[in-house]
């Protein structure tokens, strides 16, 4: 079983749609959680951190459920520029072992 | 500000040839350093991480090795490349001691083994 699992997609949505991605992790000792964005053939870049209390940044909302070991990302009012692969990331206790999910591909269409 | 440099950006190597990818970080001290590999259409696989000079942790058994000869230098090597070593190699750093663990990536090295 992979330590971090995501639905690979692809998700094909029209502009303006709301789309949600989910991620599960298996290591209950994980301490930090993130969503990264990766454009085609580029390096990943941090999108946002994920907290149990929820975290909102403009059109993006991330949520963590520690009891269920589940992380989510919600994108509202999708833009063409949101097309990318979204990577769920888990950091182990100690802060240095960082595990990436395989990513969920999103295509936003005009 | 901190920057991370990784090179070469692209390389094509024959099977059985050696490999050396280099990564340096500027503007910070004592970073955690990482090597990841991403096969075509796949997720990032953690290969090695280092919390200090000469301290290397390997995550996946393979024909690759890593070294950290200086605080802000991380090198990925192989004595004999395999076809399966093809992929996108990414070096990254994070701040030591911070629990957030945010990673900052280099622009990557795209390796094709023929």
Description:
The complex is a heterodimer of chains A (110) and B (114). Chain A contains no helices and 11 strands. Chain A is 0% helix and 54% strand. The model of chain A has no long low-confidence stretch (mean pLDDT 92). In chain A, β9 and β10 (98-100) form a beta hairpin. With 110 residues, chain A is mainly β. In chain B, 0% of the residues lie in helices and 57% in strands. In chain B, a hairpin with a 2-residue loop joins β7 (64-70) and β8 (73-78). Chain B has no helices and 11 strands. In chain B, strands 2, 4, 5, 6, 9, 10 and 11 form a 7-stranded mixed sheet that branches. The chains are: A mainly beta (110), B mainly beta (114). The interface between A and B is medium-sized, with 23 and 26 residues.
Note the main sheet of chain B: 7 strands, mixed
**What is the terminal-to-terminal distance of chain B?**
38 Å
**Estimated structural class of chain B:** mainly beta
The secondary-structure element order of chain A is EEEEEEEEEEE
Low-confidence stretches of chain A: none
User: Which residues of chain B sit in consecutive blocks of at least 5 with pLDDT less than 50?
Assistant: none
- Percent of residues in helices of chain A comes to under 10%
Protein chains sharing the most extensive interface: A-B, 23 and 26 residues
The residue fraction in helices of chain B comes out at under 10%
Report, as a whole number of angstroms, the end-to-end distance of chain A: 37 Å
